[in-house]
Amino acid sequence: MATLVLGAVGSALGAGFGGAILGFSGAAIGGFIGSTIGSVVDSWIVSSLAPAQRIEGARLDSLRITSSTEGAVIPRLYGRMRIGGNIIWATDFREETKTTSQGGGKGIGPKVRTTEYLYSASFAVALCEGEITGIGRVWADGKPIDMSGVTWRWYPGDEMQAPDPFISAKMGASNTPAYRGTAYVVFEELDLSPFGNRLPQISFEVFRPLADADTAEGMVKAVTLIPASGEFSYATVPVKKTSGGTTIGFGQTSGGTTVAENLNAISDTADFVVALDRLQAMAPAVESVSLVVAWFGDDLRTGNCKVRPGVEVDTKTTTPSAWSVNGVSRADAFLVSRDAEDRPVYGGTPADFAVVQAIQEMKARGLRVTFYPFLLMDVPSGNTLPNPFSDDTATTGQPAFPWRGRITCSPAAGYAGTVDKTATAATQVAALFGAASPAQFAVSGESVSWTGPAGEWSLRRMILHYAHLCKAAGGVDAFLVGSEMPGLTTIRSGASTYPAVTAFKSLAADVRAILGAGLSLGYAADWSEYFGHHPADGSGDVFFHLDPLWSDANINLIGIDNYMPLSDWRDGFDHIDAALAPAIYDRAYLQSNITGGEGFDWFYANPSDRATQTRTPITDGAAAKPWVFRFKDLRAWWQNPHFNRPGGVESGVPTDWVPQSKPIWFTELGCPAIDRGTNQPNVFFDPKSSESSTPYFSRGWRDDAIQRAYLEATYLFWSTPANNPTSSVYLAPMVHVPECAAWTWDARPYPFFPGLTDVWTDGPNWRRGHWLTGRLGAVSLAALVRHLCLRAGMPEDQIDVSGLWGAVEGYVISALEAPRASISTLARHFGFDAVESEGRIRCLMRGRIAIATITPDSMVAPSSAQGDVMELTRAQETELPQALKWQVARADEDYDAAQVEARRITVDTTRIAAEAFPMAVPPEEAERRCRRALMEAWVGRESAVFRLPPSRLALDPCDVILLDHDGRLTEMRLVSIADSDLRSVDAVRQDRAVYDLPPGEPRECPDRC
Fold first, then answer.
1. Dist. CA 346–CA 752, nearest whole Å
2. Residue 399 and which of 589, 756, 792, 949 are 20 to 30 A apart at CA?
3. Which CATH architecture has domain 226-768?
4. Does residue 17 have a pLDDT over 80?
5. Across residues 228-256, what is the average pLDDT?
6. Could you tell me how far CA 378 lies from the centroid of its own chain?
């Protein structure tokens, strides 16, 4: 037996849809229940989710108001949201007098004595139910307030918090409650003069993520930390720049203007510290951070590329410290390129003192630290450098700002005149790595300088410098000797000799000698690089070219930057994968492609095959080792010995790789927040770069939900023991999930980055990029619905939310309302239903695949009925809204109210429906959902009522069928099923395209962001 418990059709759209409106249909709770067990379950669910009492709560526009009301409801907040509060304690205003005199004396007139009255107040504001993880921005009378001069503190609302000492001093310890379970803020002697000597209306940005075990917030235990560049981006103390002053000696200046370089969020706290605070508040499961630090390469030709630290400008006076990297001063550093508006295209290399401070700050917080060296390619647009990807390197001009993985020999393999497989290739590789040795560095306290020859701008100098610097900082937990350089590691100096791999082995030995035995040391290979080299030269060669590095005694992890595709989704619903899942976000679908799909079962031989979905199976003929060619087959690659195949013939001797000998770390794991990002997670949108691209078949709009779906599917898959075998060598899982680092968190705090585009030129890339900043910490829709059901007293094993996806940035419940009412609000907004089936609540997104075809011949008329076996109804247009208006809080700025609208033009109705949602949402996403709700109403105006025999017992409410009637197939969603001797079914028309609409146009963030 099955019953529709909750439908997403909202009262704002009226009752013209048919089916259940905001919950139970008459059939669901009436006399059609045919089973005693089912009746009991139904009654229990009704009483759990929908008790009789319901009190109307505050609207969206009242969430920010601070009041002092006895008996006020304590709000429940999820995610991040701006709310006011309720004053729960206050002292009398404290008055101070300030008297000044002016005038008097001979010939000046009488003395004027002026007395001013200054007031301050101490008070406490209750915010919401605990436990919260942090407070971000604070507003007073609607304007951001600088809290640096305010004495205040916040309490998370846990069950162990002690009474506030200031309140205790005023009230007495025995009279002071701890307000356990309630998050609150205490202000001491707040100066009221800026607010007209009155208490201002104060509101707070509050963080309360739901870090359940199946959410990104609960599963992401490691992140990378960028921007990798920015001269003082990693400093933990304020750094200030002085302009226009006079130099007075010893690096000091007099006069001029002073501007903070790294205080963009809070006036007295470095951006890096704020960013870490936000990380730990929004992603409380994180316990490891990979610090990404960049130098700059200037040429794709291996033998010509210099690797240098860079600066944004060549003259700048800063205090308390000047910029320096490896003893290189600002004046001697590489100057990064500038764009058409004369802005630096990259930030400079982080100063050494800032890197040390960052490492020490993270270690002090109990975080594990991995050092991740990064190479940014500063090859500007319009350059005249010879292009190695041309015959005889004859073409002028290299791609602008390319990926470091393009660095290769010149001419490159596959082009006329190539030096690949010659001694010249080894010479070119040696030039890039250089000859720097560990002894050519001088360490003084926390400073490291270069003592080797001038002009040694090499990869070895960069890596060895940071090995010394990490040691000077007190050590790190892991260190990478390089990352994502497939163009370099696949260069051959002979038929099977890879000089760059040998050079990385030598570098690893030197780093090990500097940092010691306790360190985890590795190389972060690209996902297309780690498993072997299959040159496209017709030779049939197959080499496990990185095995000498993976098997090296100094290397104890296999690093993979994992951006493997998990989908092959296209427009419409005729493509192959559309029959596999209701939508691209479906977790089971995405997980099926972790060890399946492209790169495992099949590949596309060329772009034409990709366009037509002509898939070529991955096979291996008589050798029967298809895993050799499967970049997704981590298990087989890890568990088996490796045999090279020169000329396509398998060697009789394996490589030095020992099966199961070392764990795999996903040194990067990420997906861009762009439509169909899982089709091609490795690409990114950056107009300045030649690498800029959108994923295959992407429509180019922002999509936070697909990024979350990718991360949750991947982390959950590898956290399952059945998918992640245990090594018989080191007795731990193959994939070391606690060190799988999500790409990426930013040291520039959200929303100041991306909002301050005059400070950071890459801000516009955030919307569709890989950033987790501003996204992690939102509340998974599935987790939120489960939480509300648990709060109602339902056992967790009777709640199934696996059919939900997406997230809400913030949600507030400020009323005494039944959990069903709260879930109904979410259901209307996101478009899902809840159905009771076999004693469980199942929540399912709309737009599902039809699972059966029903014809009138398969329907049954009751013995007492006359006429047709099916009743079809089409609602009048006048019963439906022409327009739907929703109001939400803007998640991308100050949580101001934003109104979105969906409208039909050529219809015979003038009705307008409106609703306000107490949730924070990006406006363009709210507009998409609003449009879906309106279109759903119009599509659902066609309904059907019919009866089926008991043999159709497998059908449940929320299932979709194809109704074969009058020569056409119509998708119908089952709204309710009542069981007696027959199955009485109510259904409404569905169109899957309604659930795949584009978002609205992005709304620019005002200057105050």
1. 18
2. 756
3. Alpha-Beta Barrel (3.20)
4. no
5. 80
6. 27
pLDDT digits (tens, 9 = 90+) for 763-794: 999 999 999 999 999 999 999 999 999 999 99
Q: For the chain, what's the residue count? A: 1009
> pLDDT band for position 20 (50/70/90)?
very low
Calpha distance 195→185 (Å, rounded): 19
Residue with tokens 């010879």: 386
Contacts (Cβ under 8 Å, ≥6 apart) of 27: 976, 977, 978, 984, 986
Which stretches within 704-860 are classed as H helix? Answer: 704-718, 752-755, 781-791, 819-830
Q: Hey, what amino acid is at 699?
A: R
pLDDT at res. 10: 35
Contact 760, 753 (CB under 8 A): yes
- Judge whether 4 and 975 are in contact, CB under 8 Å: yes
As a three-state string, the secondary structure of 721-732 is HHHCCECCCCCC
325 membership: H or E segment, kind and range = strand 324-325
pLDDT 10s digits, 889-947 = 999 889 999 999 999 988 888 899 999 999 999 999 999 999 999 999 999 999 999 99
Token code pair at residue 744: 């990426």
**Distances, alpha carbon 293 to alpha carbons 370, 434, 470, 482, 795, in Å:** 11, 20, 12, 11, 47
Tell the residue number behind the tokens 């505050």, with chain if given.
Answer: 58
Calculate Rg over the CA atoms of the chain: 32
3-class secondary-structure state, position 182:
strand
Query: Which of 552, 30, 666, 588 shows the shortest CA–CA distance to 288?
Result: 666
Which part of the chain has CATH 3.20.20.80?
Answer: 226-768
Q: Which of 610, 641, 612 is nearest to 625 (CA)?
A: 641
Secondary structure element (H or E) that encloses residue 665, with its range: strand 664-669
| CB distance 950 to 982 below 8 Å | yes
Q: Cα–Cα distance between 835 and 634 in angstroms, integer?
A: 39
Residue from 728, 760, 736, 609 nearest 664 by CA: 736
Residue where the block lists tokens 């568990």:
639
Q: pLDDT tens digits for 491-504?
A: 999 999 999 999 99
Other CB atoms closer than 10 Å to residue 790's CB: what's the count?
A: 13
* Helix spans in 88-210 (H): 165-171
Q: How many CA atoms lie within 13 A of 519 on its CB side?
A: 26
Summarize the chain as % helix, strand, coil (round to 5). Answer: 25, 30, 45
C-alpha distances out from residue 683 to 483, 583, 701, 971, Å: 17, 21, 14, 36
CA distance 219 to 712: 7
Helices (H), 733-818: 752-755, 781-791
Residue from 518, 625, 532, 611 nearest 570 by CA: 611
pLDDT given at position 49: 53
